[in-house]
Structure prediction request, 519 residues.
Amino acid sequence: MYTGSVQPLELKGRRFEMLSSIHQWLEGVSYQCQKQGETLPAVTGVASDSRKVKRGDLFVAVPGSTLDGRRFIPDAISRGASAVVSEPLGDSNYSIGVPCFIVPHARKAIAQIAANAFGRPADRLKSIGVTGTNGKTTISFLIQFLVGLKHPTGIVGTVHYDDGKKKCAAHQTTPGPLELHERLSRMRTNGLTHVVMEISSHALDQDRTFGITFSEAVFTNLTQDHLDYHHDFEHYFAAKKKLFLEEPRPRRAVVNIDDPFGVSLVRELKRDQVITFGIREPADVCAKSLTVGLTSVEFDLVTDGMEYRVKAPLGLSLNVYNLLAALAVARSEGVSLKDAIGALENFKGVCGRMERIEEGQDFQFFIDYAHTPDALRNVLSETGKLSRSRIISVFGCGGDRDRGKRALMGAVAAQYSDLVIVTSDNSRSEDPESIFKDIRQGIDSKHAVLQIADREEAIRHAIQTAQAGDIVFLFGKGHERYQIVGNQSYPFSDHEVARKYLRKKCLPSSKLRTFAAGN
Prediction:
């Protein structure tokens, strides 16, 4: 599996374009200028966080989910901001002493200004966007790998950002506009021609990618997640659809036609601009004659009246969908299907996505990022069909996030597992016990469930409990290397902890003790 050499997130000093007038910074932005003073000042940079303002910056007051950026205009000016971009000031329409440019949508304005600030790098890249609840990361890695056979391709996503020279650990699936366009600028400087971006519903709702024309946009599926933010499926789906329906529209949409929301999306798009993929329903790119295992899949890819046999080192049918989407995009970007399919045997997988951890143990151990009811069901239900082995599932639910999915995840884990161990997973400001209580509401008393708050102890117990032939799943955190408790982030890696206890269990002394106990 791919882990790569990932550096800590680091961007020292914005590399802004040398724009000669404030009007160039605001090119493409609709605004009204409330001018203060005789002349418009020179602008040397841009910031949307007043704490990061430097003298000569243009400050963009962006509304937040909890705080309104307009509250920080005085602070930005005191730090040297030479001009301000803001939505109407309303009752706070005071004289601020510098030119103020009033815009209807500050989030869209900052996206446009960020593009201008870095020389509009997205105009010189072919951008591929991937959105949906599940599958975004694996599809993005596959696209980078396959399109990269012909075109040097970067990535922006949940695991890391890859600009062609350096991989930096991601702090958001889709970063804010200033960071996003700076990273795109670095990709162009490094000679990349394509970029694949995971695009979250939060990013779409907050217009972080506004103004970027996507060559392809992929829709994976829509299942319950993030309803703490979007409140209901209608608003969640509306956010996802912005990638496909808001101008500038993508040149092509690659849509999972087996997903009911995908069907609905296709109805709203021009059919000649859509490539559908699927297994159950007729599709432009479909899979037939599937042979599915825990660590590999084989199927016939059928498209344009031709059939191709696909073999890939990725397990379960969920990865058949991921492969179909990526192969459709690669072909659309000029990579021959024959070359793409032939290369798949060399794909190294994705860190924390159905990743098999092997330390010589006599049972199978997987780390997977699944953190939604549907993602758990996809893995566990199919595993149960493929194997008669005992299944042990370790999982938790994030604090301060969608509470409605907790009981559903508990029910799914209990239904398809022989033993469930409920543990902590980024509890944030919530008491872990209240999270466990929500999870247990979906689990009836007949199922074997353990509650171990300490995640390391939960992993240790699962490994010590596992017997020969068992299958252990460690869900939720995947590639993450931290545990958030309160407002603090502490180092924690499922990989490191699992490998530590797997090695201990595989020590000869451990096996001798187990043998002695059994006799």
User: Anything to note?
Assistant: The chain has 17 helices and 25 strands.
